[in-house]
Design brief:
single chain; 9 strands
């Protein structure tokens, strides 16, 4: 929904609530305060505040600080960097702190920067303790063995992590763990046979991962053991030592029923790829009720036995 109420040259912006573009207008002789006006527009056009984008939330919380579009977007850039652990420059630090270079804040910035030490991987691996190495994408998005065309541009198999460690001079013990939620979830295009809109709304109420033009909707469904088996098979050069299931607390909080896809009702035809088959695969769902109450040790044993029996991990 794009609201046209006039024109103030140059004051264009993008927000998820106002769709593609909106224009902030000044119908009086007063100087327009861009942040306040944009915040007012977002409030006016918002039906569900649980679905605000990070930018919209920033405008509502901080818009009053920024008189111009340029100031607001620069402020959001600094906010984004801080949220993603990206170092800001001296100039950005001073603007955010509303200080000048002559203030003590500049010396504080220099002192903090001196404490930040950049280490190479081989230096880190020589330190005492354990290092956790996590790939940025899942096995099924590997550039070569993933579910094409829904893949990343990098190799995500564990063997490449092991190769990276060896190239850095590390030849010690490596424990290779597969990590997956206790249910299926996907934000992006690609096959997900167990996708269930009702399950999604139950497990991810008010998810911040809203629908957008690049990734589509966030989807959730029963844990798909078939896809996990496939991931294990393509990573067989460096077998997994174990599997970790996360977010099991959501299963306990939403009915205590663990739904699992044990297999598919149909089979791929000779001429279709596995990805094509998954687009129309019909899952066989089994439900397992978790008793209440249950000790953590008993829950671990139950889940461990289930996965070991079905996956061999």
């Amino acid at each position: 929904m794009t609201n046209w109420t006039g024109l103030l040259s140059g004051n264009w912006t993008l927000t998820s609530i106002l769709d593609d573009e909106c224009v902030i207008v000044n119908l009086s002789s007063d100087v327009v305060h861009y942040g306040d006006e944009l915040a007012a527009k977002i409030r006016e056009n918002t039906e569900d505040f649980s679905k605000l984008s990070d930018f919209d939330k920033f405008v509502l919380n901080n818009g009053h600080r920024y008189k111009t579009r340029e100031e607001l977007h620069a402020g959001y850039d600094r906010h984004w960097k801080a949220a993603h652990d990206i170092l800001v420059t001296m100039e950005e630090f001073l603007i955010e702190a509303d200080k000048k270079k002559s203030d003590l804040a500049a010396d504080t910035y220099k002192a903090l920067i001196a404490l930040v030490m950049v280490k190479e991987l081989d230096e880190i691996l020589r330190l005492n303790g354990s290092a956790i190495v996590e790939c940025s994408h899942g096995v099924l998005t590997d550039a070569e063995t993933g579910l094409k065309p829904h893949v990343s541009a990098i190799r995500t198999l564990p063997k490449y992590t092991c190769k990276m460690l060896r190239n850095s001079g590390y030849f010690g013990k490596v424990i290779n763990l597969a990590v997956h939620r206790a249910y299926g979830v996907r934000h992006g295009a690609g096959p997900m046979p167990t996708y269930d809109p009702v399950f999604t709304s139950k497990m991810l109420p008010g998810s911040h991962k809203d629908e957008n033009r690049w990734q589509g909707i966030v989807r959730a469904g029963s844990l798909d053991l078939n896809l996990i088996r496939h991931a294990i098979s393509v990573a067989d050069e460096t077998p997994f030592d174990g599997i970790c299931l996360t977010w099991f607390d959501q299963i306990l909080k939403t009915g205590r029923v663990w739904s699992i896809c044990e297999g598919y009702q149909n089979f791929p035809s000779p001429n279709e790829s596995y990805t094509e088959f998954l687009q129309h695969a019909k899952p066989i769902i089994s439900e397992y009720r978790i008793k209440n109450p249950i000790l953590k040790a008993d829950l671990f044993d139950f889940v461990g036995e289930m996965l070991n029996e079905r996956l061999g991990v």
